[in-house]
Amino acid sequence: MNAPERHEMFTLPEGARKIDMLKDPKMVNCIQFNIQREDHTLANILRYKILQHPQVLFAAYRMPHPLEYYVELKVQTTARTTPVDVVKEAIESLMLEYGNIRSAFDNELFRMDASVGDGPRTVGRMGAGYGGFGSLDTSTAEFGVARDMGERGDRGDDVDIDF
Amino acid sequence: MIAEVPTMAIDMVLFNENTSVLADEFFAHRLGLVPLVSTSVDQFKYSRDCTCGEYCKECSVEFTLHVKCTEPGTRVVHSSELISSNKDVVPVVDDNGRGVILLKLSKGQEINVHCVAKKGVAKEHAKWSPCAAVGFEYDPHNNLKHLDYWFEKGIKEEWPLSKNAEEETENDPSAPFDYNAEPTTFYFNVETIGSLDPQAVVIKATRVLQEKLGALQMALEEDQHPDTNANMDEADPWV
Known about the structure:
Largest sheet of chain A: 4 strands, antiparallel
Number of helices of chain B: 4
Shape of chain A: flat
Distance between the termini of chain A: 49 Å
Helix content of chain A: 25-40%
Radius of gyration of chain B: 26 Å
CATH architecture of the largest domain in chain A: 2-Layer Sandwich
Number of helices of chain A: 3
CATH superfamily of the domain at 7-128 in chain B: DNA-directed RNA polymerase, insert domain
CATH class of the domain at 7-128 in chain B: Mainly Beta
Largest interface: A-B, 34 and 32 residues
CATH superfamily of the largest domain in chain A: RNA polymerase, RBP11-like subunit
Structural class of chain B: alpha+beta
Oligomer: heterodimer
Shape of chain B: flat
């Protein structure tokens, strides 16, 4: 009877802040981010990305309680940067990465359609050695990725997707 | 992909008549699990975000089902007999064109229900999940030694390689182990229940993740200038 509504786990209540930043009282240059209405889906990828940053000394996250719908993300960096900047960079880089995955995936679907014809889409093996429409399609694939990066201000330094 | 890609599913059921052997709540639950073609799900709003009171065309699709068995024997009711108010959102049907079996009626039994399908995500209820099974693997040759295989005679004989192993080459066993290596290629298996293509689910999943990150980015930007909004309200005494 007093169970919380199921949609409360992903809808932000009115007036609530999406993210709270708390300075850690003991660690230098360390901030704890309390992100409302998010879970491992977001926190895990963020932590993973933040840990790849060379200036990061510590990054971890936890869900304090399964019925309290927020995650705590703690980030400590060197004095050269700030945890907030690192998180922002991580978000940008992840956005770019998902854009790249999507355009690469789209191109691959297009290529499969072209090679299969009008038949139903079958998910087959399409490794690097696939030689169907080789020259034509690699050019479109490159174009797709390059265009995506251009839109978001050329930050191709940490793209490590291998399709 | 499992939890946060939105689809349509029946969420409210009004029973006008139910003389079948199934209890109302039992049958309502079955209706909720019926897969609906959700390719046009982006055109719908979430009911809770919609301006309407309960439900409307912009946030829901209505279905009716009215079947009475008048002949002796068993009348099988399939999901394809649900009549939709929107031609884009209909029950998923298999090759025989009938869909899943909803219930069976014997002579004299009748079912007459009115259903409302809404947009939702599987975080709220699993009926909204477009996926049946999603799995992934990386490093099929175990080059990174993230796995320690149990074996009696030899790993090679007892552990068959997955199909994805064709995509990569095995490291030279005599070469020194590269302890800095990280997995870079991930192989996903996506199986859906028919409401969306697996291809569409992958693409939508990347969008969902980007939206989540975008919301966080905006929240962070706002936090950088926490006084901006407050000052604007105070600075304008004519409001």
